[in-house]
Amino acid sequence: MKTTNIMIVGVGGQGSLLASKLLGRLLTAEGYDVKVSEVHGMSQRGGSVVTYVRFGEKVYSPIVTEGEADFIVSFEKLEAARWASCLAPDGRIIVNTQEIAPMPVITGAATYPSGILDELTAKGVKIDALDALSLARQAGSPKAVNIVLMARLAKYLDIPFENWLEAIGKTVAPKFVELNRAAFTLGYNA
C-alpha cells in the first residue's frame, strides 16, 4: 500500500491543527498507520503554518518533502502558491479562494498578487478551488473553513461519509459538533 502524503497549509488561527487532528483520528480509526506533524510556523502571529499528515500500511516519518504531497489543503490562495513545490507530479491542491493579506500587504510594502490560481493551473497544477468561507458561514461560523476543506479532501479519499461525521463528533467540542457536521456536509456536497 502506497503512503499518502497530505499537507495542510494556511495562516495561524485558521484551524489547521484541528483539521490535522480530525484527519489523524479518522485515518487511525480506519486502520492506517498515521503520522501527524506538529504545526510549523508563526501560528500565534498570523504567519504561515503547515502540518503534515502521512498514512499507509507503515509510515516512518511525519514530514513531507518537496515533490511528495499527494494533496495540499490550503486555507488561503497565497499559501497554496507558497507550498506548491511540495506537490507530487500527480498531486492536487484543494484551496479556499479566500485571500488573507500577509503583513507586507497590510503595511503597504507589497500588494497581494493577482491570478495566483491561474498561474498554478498554467504550470499544470491540478487545482480544486472553492469558496470555503461562504460555506462555513452558511453552516453557522466562518471558523468552520477548516472542516469545509476537510470535506472537499474527503471526496478524494476512500472513506465513507458517515465515518467522517463520526470522527467530527469525537474531535470537536460537543457544543460545536452539529455546526461542524453541517459545514462538512456543505463542503462535501459543494
> What count of helical segments does DSSP give?
8
Q: What fold name goes in the CATH topology slot?
A: Pyruvate-ferredoxin Oxidoreductase, domain 3
N- and C-termini, Cα separation: 30 Å
How much of the residues is beta strand, in percent? Answer: 15-25%
Rounded to the nearest angstrom, the radius of gyration is: 16 Å
* Share of helix, binned: 25-40%
Sheet with the most strands, sense and barrel status:
7 strands, mixed
Query: What is the strand tally?
Result: 7
Please provide the ordered H/E string of secondary-structure elements: EHEEEEHEHHEHHHH
CATH class: Alpha Beta
Q: Give start-end ranges of low-pLDDT stretches.
A: none
CATH superfamily membership: Pyruvate-ferredoxin oxidoreductase, PFOR, domain III
Secondary structure category: alpha/beta
Principal-axes geometry comes out as globular
CATH architectural category: 3-Layer(aba) Sandwich
Overall mean pLDDT stands at: 93
What is the domain total for the residues? 1
